[in-house]
């Protein structure tokens, strides 16, 4: 993928964790980056730490990724920044519980990522006239198997996988490239609300977000004459 000139990458859920590492590394690789996240406090801090130091390169948009009106307004602004060539659908919210403990609130929480993925993918495909764009859907190894305390989370991730596979079929042979990314556990605060399931010691044994971001970007931005369709990454131990 060429990324000279005013080329724009969009990252959803980029206020922390893997998303933030992707934002930073994309800026280092020469992209104008639009960061989409609902965490107003974290995004305000990033406006100072990244935006003020990189005028014209970093742009933060605060809102719910699943909100179509917010996505449409944001994309109108983002389209004026340059040519959109990359969307990384990274936003998502977890809920790890025993099967009988899940509630409708947990279901809605887990479905945030799927809804946002569809909203932003549809918007970007329209904005780019369905050409010359990479769309990366960040899911989880939970989209590839069933985990005992992740039944609803797995259900949402399997839905994201189904959507990703359908997109691949729809755009096969075109200049729209769809990538499914399936990482295992990452050492971030993603697990803070589920310490009974993933305690802090276990969390710190997971993959590092900066290393994972590098692996993803090295693969999808490779200039080799090949296409990365799926990328599954697990920790060594």
Please give a structural write-up.
Strands 3-2-1-4-5-6-7 form a seven-stranded parallel sheet, sandwiched between helices. The model has no long low-confidence stretch (mean pLDDT 89). The longest helix has 24 residues, at 104-127. With 237 residues, it is an alpha/beta fold. 41% of the residues lie in helices and 18% in strands. Helix 1 (17-28) packs across helix 7. The chain is built from seven helices and seven strands.
What is the topological layout?
Layout: E1 7-12, H1 17-28, E2 32-37, H2 40-51, E3 58-62, H3 68-79, E4 83-89, H4 104-127, E5 133-138, H5 151-170, E6 176-183, H6 200-203, H7 209-220, E7 230-233
Helix pairs in contact: 1-7, 3-4, 4-5
- What amount of the residues lies in strands? 15-25%
Termini distance?
Answer: 33 Å
Q: Give the helix level as a range of percent.
A: 40-55%
SSE ordering? EHEHEHEHEHEHHE
**Rg calculated over all Cα atoms:** 17 Å
Largest sheet: 7 strands, parallel
Number of strands: 7
- Low-confidence blocks of residues: none
How would you classify the helix and strand content by structural class? alpha/beta
What would you call the shape?
globular
Numbering strands along the chain, what is their spatial order in the largest sheet?
3-2-1-4-5-6-7
Please, what is the average pLDDT? Answer: 89
**How many helices?**
7
């Amino acid at each position: 993928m060429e990324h000279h000139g005013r080329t724009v990458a969009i990252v959803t859920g980029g206020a922390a964790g893997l998303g933030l590492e992707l934002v930073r590394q994309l800026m280092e690789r020469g992209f104008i980056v639009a960061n989409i996240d609902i965490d107003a406090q974290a995004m305000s801090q990033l406006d100072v730490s990244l935006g003020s130091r990189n005028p014209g390169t970093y742009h933060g948009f605060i809102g719910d990724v699943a909100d179509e009106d917010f996505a449409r307004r944001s994309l109108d602004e983002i389209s004026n920044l340059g040519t959109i060539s990359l969307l990384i659908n990274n936003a998502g919210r977890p809920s790890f519980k025993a099967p009988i403990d899940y509630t409708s609130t947990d279901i809605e929480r887990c479905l945030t990522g799927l809804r946002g993925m569809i909203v932003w993918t549809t918007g970007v495909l329209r904005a780019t006239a369905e050409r010359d764009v990479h769309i990366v859907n960040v899911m989880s190894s939970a989209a590839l198997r069933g985990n005992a305390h992740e039944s609803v989370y797995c259900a949402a991730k399997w839905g994201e996988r189904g959507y990703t596979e359908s997109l691949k079929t729809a755009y096969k042979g075109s200049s729209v490239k769809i990538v499914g990314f399936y990482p295992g556990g990452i050492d971030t605060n993603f697990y803070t609300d589920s310490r009974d399931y993933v305690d802090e010691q276990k969390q710190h044994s997971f993959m590092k977000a900066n290393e994972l971001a590098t692996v993803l970007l090295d693969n999808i931005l490779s200039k080799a004459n090949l296409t990365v369709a799926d990328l599954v990454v697990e920790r060594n131990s």
